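hey team, just a heads up i'm posting the complex here instead of the shared drive bc the drive is being weird again. everything in one block, sequence lines first with there labels, then the predicted structure for the whole assembly after. its two chains so it's a bit long, scroll down
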Amino acid sequence: MKTELKEKIERIDRALNEYLPERDNAQSIIYTAMRYSLFAGGKRLRPILMLETAKMCGGSEENVMPFACAMEMIHTYSLIHDDLPAMDNDDLRRGMPTSHIKFGEAAAILAGDALLNKAFEIVSAAASDNAARSLRAISELAKSSGTEGMIGGQIIDMQSEGKDITLDELRHLHLLKTGAIIRSSCVIGAVLAGADKAETDAVDEFAANLGVAFQIRDDILDVEGSEAELGKPVGSDEKSDKNTYVKLAGLEKSKELALLYSQKAKKALECFGEKADFLLRLTDYLTARTS
Amino acid sequence: MKTELKEKIERIDRALNEYLPERDNAQSIIYTAMRYSLFAGGKRLRPILMLETAKMCGGSEENVMPFACAMEMIHTYSLIHDDLPAMDNDDLRRGMPTSHIKFGEAAAILAGDALLNKAFEIVSAAASDNAARSLRAISELAKSSGTEGMIGGQIIDMQSEGKDITLDELRHLHLLKTGAIIRSSCVIGAVLAGADKAETDAVDEFAANLGVAFQIRDDILDVEGSEAELGKPVGSDEKSDKNTYVKLAGLEKSKELALLYSQKAKKALECFGEKADFLLRLTDYLTARTS
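-- predicted structure starts here --
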């Protein structure tokens, strides 16, 4: 799986590099800042999910790649803004200085804005043999990253800091904050491939459950992971009294839940038969990952 | 003209209110913050330009309104982020506390992000009888607000602070920072109305020159305007040693230039005959405005 992923990541990175090259003009620093965060060692999970879902539904990589790159830019912008002093105030990400430490706060704010904006530049300018389908995919992209998706989750997260919340509230928070764009990554793959409603619903069900399993694993790794593999200190969630699955449900129960949600995710793909092979193996891999 | 504008502004405000209502959910504060800045007394210049250009080109208001509202949201987000402590650090705008003073810095950053995101939610979800045309209009919107448009101009502006620049460099800065979305407002109106290439080029030429005239008038008002009408202190540009037309070319020459560019703008619309009536009068009004 690691070798397969590496090859896919390289293809995505080449496309990202083409969509966002360095520029030699008066505002070149913004491109440097955008690229710094975009090429900081991301796992490219969302683009991979989109490309593989499209493949499973019979779509072509060419049509999907602009959207896959746009999704990674949106994910990256959210990290840059999350790290800002007014937000989580993080100096390091994946062992490297965060954007505002490297480029200053003003440039980091603009680099985040610019990545969000660039995502929509790319998908609206991409060649499309089906404009109605492209519009629907852009709409999914925008909705999932907005106030009823990722940004909504960030607001709820901010407001629940230092408060006791229930497991249901935690699930709702993650459903928006991280789950919404994991879901739309898969749904966009299906939409662009021309999947029918039953297939698109199955893909959505898969991604919703995978998102929960992925988040629980994240929380477990913060307790059980190794600092070297994670690129960040272990135990930081507990130190900052963050609401996590481990805190609310305990470590053992969290492991059970991760397994349960990953099984639900895989079950949703039954209708695709052996075409789902890669996504099934990816689900197992992500649920057992160590970084 | 004032009465005509008031009626148009009310129609735009009603549409904005429909696209961005208050919400009663866990993240309701983000809607409150977005609406606070969106309804802070903006002149709605960009939506008016878009709607009137479309009308001049024979388009329907219904098709254009979602884009007009999206453009105003993009303009508003740029003001919220511009005002942040790390950027211009302004406490007041139009006589009211800025977003980060009212809601805190984290919420202001997210409210800006959310308005940019919402713009693309609205235009991609809008009913379209011509999906290819909608895609092209979204592409114009995204390009003009991005790194080769508004954000690019903000970066250049940031970098030229406290430096001596030439009049040509100042024009280039404004062409991106404020000019790009004034141009695309008009171009999108033409595109959605199905204007041909010659008409779209004429509209672009009009808007490019209007944008310069508008900016010069802004710089003049900072010297000659009245504090009560402007809602901000007069002379603030000089105090902060900002590069303006008045600083680089002098007051008299700036007045000549404003007139020159507004004449060039009007000349570009000759091919539309009397259908251009409103935009011609608007150009005169904006070039002579006192607030």
